[in-house]
Amino acid sequence: MGQNSTKKSKNKIAEKDSPLRSISKAFSWRIIATATTFIISFIIFNNYTEKTIDESINNAGLIASIEFFTKIIFYYLHERLWTNIRWGTYWRKFYIGKNAWKKLYRREHEKQKLL
């Protein structure tokens, strides 16, 4: 039984994204989201206003540029905040192995019944 408790303590892993990973995720998502914003803005300006294609591109580019820089800052802060919240990650943090999450799920719900 002593070996099992030692083995379990070795499996306790606190998984947390590094700040570099968070900023990389923020940039990769912002590129996709900003491209989408640019396309939507261009379509709206080109189809629903009297603007020329050049004006539509300029307006869509301005919106996309402002959106890129402001939202990447907010996304990064949001991501860092969530790295400090344990809710929803307990099964992944403490148990490694096939079907281990089922065992933890049952154990956690048994604890709740006792309360």
Keywords for this entry:
115 residues; mainly alpha; 2 domains; elongated; disordered N terminus
Helix/strand layout:
Elements: H1 2-11, H2 19-48, H3 53-83, H4 90-94, H5 100-114
Helix pairs in contact: 2-3
If you had to describe this structure to a student in words, what would you say it looks like?
- It is a single chain.
- The relative contact order is 0.12.
- This protein has two domains: 68 residues, no CATH class; 27 residues, no CATH class.
- Helix 2 packs antiparallel against helix 3.
- Helices cover 79% and strands 0% of the residues.
- The radius of gyration is 23 Å and the shape is elongated.
- It contains five helices and no strands.
- It is mainly alpha-helical and 115 residues long.
- The two termini are 28 Å apart.
- The N terminus is likely disordered.
Largest sheet: none
Class from helix and strand fractions: mainly alpha
| Model regions low in confidence, pLDDT < 50 over at least 5 residues | 1-9
Can you give the helix content as a percent range? over 70%
Which value, in Å, is the CA radius of gyration?
Answer: 23 Å
Between the first and last Cα atoms, what is the distance in angstroms? 28 Å
Number of domains: 2
Order of helices and strands: HHHHH
Taken from the alpha-carbon principal axes, the silhouette is elongated
Name the average pLDDT.
79
Query: Which range does the strand content fall in?
Result: under 5%
Count of beta strands: 0
The helix tally amounts to 5
